[in-house]
């Protein structure tokens, strides 16, 4: 009997856990009337991040991000403002309503995520470090 699982087994486990996390994130987003991608964009915009970088992080085309931002703006979750640092630049800022929506999603994830409910704080730290190593070694994601 193999003590060490093969890569396929580890990968499959990661896909299953990732699928569960995505389903929970999608359900939490739906609670506040957002799609998965809208909620993820709002969460990333809190950093703040430029629209082009947002497209890279969401792994989608810049025109898709423009549509996404117009939708979020129309629903009052973000605002476009002239940058104080460079008046030629328009920034996307998450509104209080957008912040509330993100807080709801993150609170539900913290309460229900298997990462939070099944692992100790030390185990979560170890997992985070391992995932960071995997992400750092993986190169540029497709998209």
Structure description:
- The chain is mainly alpha-helical.
- It has a domain at about 35-115: Orthogonal Bundle (Arc Repressor Mutant, subunit A), CATH 1.10.10.10.
- It is about 65% helix and about 5% strand.
- It has seven helices and two strands.
- The chain has helices spanning about 5-30, 35-45, 50-60, 60-75, 95-110, 115-120, 120-135; strands at about 80, 90-95.
- A two-stranded antiparallel sheet has the order 1-2.
- Helix 1 (about 5-30) packs across helix 5.
- About 15% of the residues are buried.
Concise summary:
The protein is 66% helix and 7% strand. It is mainly alpha-helical and 143 residues long.
Structural class: mainly alpha
Instruction: Let me know the CATH homologous superfamily of the domain at 34-115.
Output: Winged helix-like DNA-binding domain superfamily/Winged helix DNA-binding domain
**CATH T-level fold name of the domain at 34-115:** Arc Repressor Mutant, subunit A
* Structure summary, number of beta strands: 2
* Side-by-side strand order of the widest sheet: 1-2
What is the first-to-last residue Cα distance? 39 Å
* CATH architecture designation of the domain at 34-115: Orthogonal Bundle
Oligomer: single chain
Note poorly predicted spans. none
Radius of gyration over C-alpha positions, nearest whole angstrom = 18 Å
Work out the strand percent.
Answer: 5-15%
Helix and strand element order: HHHHEEHHH
Mean of the pLDDT scores? 88
CATH C-level class of the domain at 34-115 = Mainly Alpha
Q: In one word, what is the shape?
A: globular
Could you give a short account of the major beta sheet? 2 strands, antiparallel
DSSP helix fraction: 55-70%
Count of helix runs: 7
